[in-house]
Amino acid sequence: MRIAVTIFLTDETVAPVRLARELEQRGYAGLYLPEHTHIPVERTTPYPVGGELPREYGRTLDPFVALGQAAAVTERLGLGTGITLVAQHDPVALAKQIATLDHLSGGRFTLGLGYGWNVEEAADHGVTWRTRRELVRDRVRLMQALWAREPTAYKGEFASVRASHAHPKPVPGPRGPVTGPRTLVGGAAGPKLFAHIAEYADGWLPIGGRGLTESLPVLRTAWTDAGRDPAALQIVPYAVLPTPGKLAHYAELGIEEVVLQLPSAGEAEVLRVLDGYAPLL
Fold it and tell me: What is the number of other CB atoms lying within 10 angstroms of the CB of residue 226?
């Protein structure tokens, strides 16, 4: 099983270059970074896990800039987002960012994407909350059209693009209905999420990894009903606090990669946790 990590990198934590070098030297499979552009002070949206919103949410580094630094100082380390808030981006510009990072890293990028939880943050980007899932779907499809090997147009309800010359291209080739980098969708289990995964992604990024025994058969049914290859579905439990038993359970479910949570902390604390995770590698 491949062991990757995620962390809220901020202006107060270990630096991306230092962390990326340590991860590659220690044999970790990848580094996934979250995204928040800002956290409005006047916020009524509750923190999804309860309690006060941690300080790091309002100090998060831009994931693409930080991953670009990580790519420049490593050769094998996977690079991913967990997650990109696609609804908060211009999809044409985002497609260029993603393709450039994947190209320059030699195909090491994973696009973890999601729909978000902070209504006020999304509203400042002009997002209408009730239609955000359909907006994300349209924007992903638009990006995939720009990543196609030949000029391809896309016209959707919320986003459109003309057939265009758009280079560089992401390294991975087309597979089924998906074009571009490895694409994983985050979110809570449900029929709408699973339908979107089967339509335009390579798999699921379940936060915390709970309840997979019950939810995976449902996702696999939606996947095969959409005509996708059962062997191609990828499940990557995300932001996991590991135990040997939990990882053994994932292995029994056929999961080949897991993303462990690191503390949003300085270099000494992060390296201490990495040392603690080392026996799991």
Answer: 14
| pLDDT recorded at residue 38 | 98
Q: Which residues contact 144 (CB under 8 A, 6 or more apart)?
A: 154, 178, 179, 180, 200
Looking only at the bridges linking them, the beta strands covering 109-114 and 182-186 are parallel
DSSP letters along 203-248, please?
Answer: EEE-BTTTTHHHHHHHHHHHHHHTT--GGG-EE--BSB---HHHHH
Exposure class string for 7-40: b at 16+ Cβ within 10 A, else e: bbbbeebbbbebbbeebbeeebbbbbbbbbeebe
The contacts of residue 269 (CB under 8 Å, 6+ apart) are: 263
Cα–Cα distance for residue pair 144/153, rounded to 1 Å: 10
Return the H-helix or E-strand segment holding 68: helix 63-72
Q: Which residues contact 7 (CB under 8 A, 6 or more apart)?
A: 13, 14, 19, 31, 33, 261, 262, 263, 264, 270
pTM of the entire predicted model = 0.97
- Residue 209: the pLDDT is 86
Report the distance separating Cα 161 and Cα 158, nearest Å: 11
Tokens of 178: 């998906």
Count of residues making up the chain: 281
Four-residue CA torsion sign, 187, 208, 90, 110: negative
The low-confidence residues of the chain, meaning pLDDT below 70, are none
Q: How far is CA 209 from the centre of its chain?
A: 14
Determine the 3-state secondary structure of 99 from DSSP. Answer: helix
CA distance linking residue 222 with residue 219, whole number of Å: 5
